[in-house]
Structure formats: structure tokens, C-alpha cells
Specification:
Layout (H helix, E strand, L loop, with lengths): L2 H9 L8 H18 L14 H7 L4 H19 L8 H21 L4 H17 L17 H4 L2 H24 L6 H24 L9 E3 L15 H16 L5 E4 L26 E3 L4
Parallel strand pairs: 1-2, 2-3
Helix pairs in contact: 2-3, 2-4, 4-5, 5-6, 6-8, 8-9
Length: about 290
């Protein structure tokens, strides 16, 4: 190699490894973007590129740093997403955040693998989280798109985990394009997005076809009970009275179905079956209350 050629090589731009502080800031940015993509901010479009700063932060890092940076991003995300659990149990909130962030950490390690393998790994981790140790299926990436009506129609075929696949694959595809590194995830993500969009267009046209329309009258109740009151015994009777009144008012419109919100009843039905009396209007009236305990 001549002297001129060596000088040319030396002048070529090289990737500079980010400092730990800069990497932490990028992880923080990704976590904040993800938080904003979920309710109650509902900026769902952010989810399609929220992971990109996170991916840059993980570049050229040893495995232990990849895990810790990803774990840090998970801590921020879960603190901002399930913060309201503080009102239920502060120790429980802390332990749950520490546990859930492990899934982010594991995904950080998967970043070294082939892009499509990493995408499938994210979906597999979400599936595992949804069932392991009784399961915690909240804040799945696909749920961020609940307002993206056209794109989520395909969930009737691929479930919410399929929507998660679309979102994380798109993030990784954009990142690879920005880094000018071709990978099969790029055409795969593009093809999947096109299929999802076209299927959504087809399904919405099908649903809006007058020949396919049928109506069901539904009343959905929301007592707007403050979180700190839900499990306070002092408020038990007032909460039950509130939902009983709302149910009777809704029944005046003769709906086919009345739906109560999750954990509306401040008790466990198996232990206190008499609580169901508050949900009854008349024998045979179709009232549903959704409980998780």
C-alpha cells in the first residue's frame, strides 16, 4: 500500500463508540418515546421508531454493558408505564419493575444476533412475560397501536404479538437502513407492513359494507374511582353504590350489554359472592363485570 493510499484510509470516517453517559441518554430517550406511545399520551406513531436510539446505544458494547443499558431502559419504561401501582403497593411496584426490566435486558443481549432473530426474540419475550409466573401481559408493544385502526385489523389473524412483531421489525429495519447495513429484516418489515395495511383496508371496507352491518347496543361504565380508594375498605360501600347507580341508569336505555371496568368491584367474588348483587338489575339482564385477581 502506497503512502497516499494509507493516508486516504486514515482519513476515512470511522464509527466512534459512544460514552456510557451518551448511551444512557439514548436509552432514556427510547424509554420516554415508548412511554409516550402508550395511554394516556397515545402518541402511537412514536413506537415505530422509539427503539432506534436504543439500538445505537447498544452498538459495539460488551455483553454485560448491553444487558445493563437495556435493563436501564426497561426500568425507565416500566416506571413511566405502571407508576399507578404505587397506590396499590409501593414494594410490589418496585419488585415488579425490577422483574419486568429483565426482559428488556435479555433483549439487549439478543441485539447481537441476526436482526430477524432479535425481532422474533422480542416477541418470544413478550409471550413469555404474558404467561410466566401467572403472567403480566400489560404494555405489550402491539397494544400501543390500538388507535391505529387500519394497521391493527390483521390482529384477528396474527394476534397482538403479531402487531408487536411489525413494530419492532420496523424499528430494526429503519436502524439498519440508517447504518447502511442490509439485512433481511428490511424487506421483511416492508412486506409485512404492506400486507397489514392492505388487509386493514380490506377489512374496514368489509365491516363498513351495509350488507354486513348488525348492531349491538352496549353501555360501558366508568366510575372514575381514584386509585388510592379502590382497595381502601372505607370506600367499599360508596364504590359499590356508585356502580350500582350507574348500572341502573344505563339500564334505562335498554342496552344488550352493560360492561363494568376491570377491578370495579372492591373485593374477590369467590370469597364474597354477595357482591354480584350490586351488578344485577333484574334476572336475566346481561351485565358483565371484568375482574382480575
Amino acid at each position: 500500500m502506497s503512502v497516499r493510499e494509507r493516508e486516504k484510509v486514515q482519513k476515512m470516517p470511522r464509527d466512534v463508540k459512544l460514552s456510557v453517559g451518551a448511551a444512557l441518554l439514548l436509552c432514556l430517550l427510547s424509554a420516554v418515546l415508548l412511554i409516550l406511545s402508550f395511554p394516556s399520551f397515545n402518541l402511537e406513531f412514536l413506537a415505530w421508531f422509539a427503539f432506534i436510539p436504543f439500538f445505537f446505544a447498544l452498538e459495539d458494547r460488551p455483553r454485560h454493558e448491553m444487558f445493563l443499558l437495556a435493563y436501564f431502559a426497561g426500568l425507565i419504561f416500566w416506571c413511566g408505564t405502571i407508576y399507578w401501582l404505587i397506590y396499590v403497593s409501593l414494594p410490589g411496584f418496585v419488585l415488579l419493575v425490577l422483574y419486568l426490566s429483565v426482559y428488556f435486558g435479555i433483549f439487549g443481549l439478543l441485539f447481537r444476533l441476526r436482526p430477524l432473530t432479535a425481532v422474533v426474540g422480542w416477541v418470544a419475550l413478550e409471550f413469555l412475560r404474558s404467561y410466566a409466573f401467572s403472567g403480566f401481559p400489560w404494555a405489550l408493544l402491539g397494544y400501543s397501536q390500538y388507535l391505529n385502526i387500519r394497521m391493527i385489523q390483521i390482529a384477528d389473524l396474527i394476534t397482538v404479538w403479531g402487531i408487536s412483531f411489525l413494530v419492532i421489525a420496523t424499528n430494526l429495519a429503519i436502524y439498519r437502513v440508517m447504518r447502511r447495513r442490509f439485512a433481511t429484516v428490511i424487506p421483511t418489515a416492508a412486506a409485512c407492513l404492506c400486507i397489514a395495511f392492505l388487509y386493514g383496508h380490506y377489512r374496514l371496507n368489509q365491516i363498513n359494507d351495509p350488507a354486513n352491518k348488525s348492531t349491538v347496543k352496549i353501555s360501558i361504565l366508568q366510575g372514575s374511582i381514584p386509585q388510592h380508594q379502590k382497595w381502601d375498605k372505607k370506600f367499599k360501600e360508596s364504590i359499590l353504590a356508585r356502580y350500582s347507580t350507574l348500572t341502573k341508569e344505563a339500564a334505562n336505555d335498554k342496552p344488550d350489554l352493560i360492561i363494568w371496568p376491570e377491578t370495579a368491584i372492591p373485593g374477590v367474588i369467590d370469597e364474597e359472592p354477595e357482591l354480584l348483587a350490586y351488578a344485577l338489575i333484574r334476572p336475566g339482564h346481561p351485565t358483565i363485570t371484568i375482574l382480575r385477581y
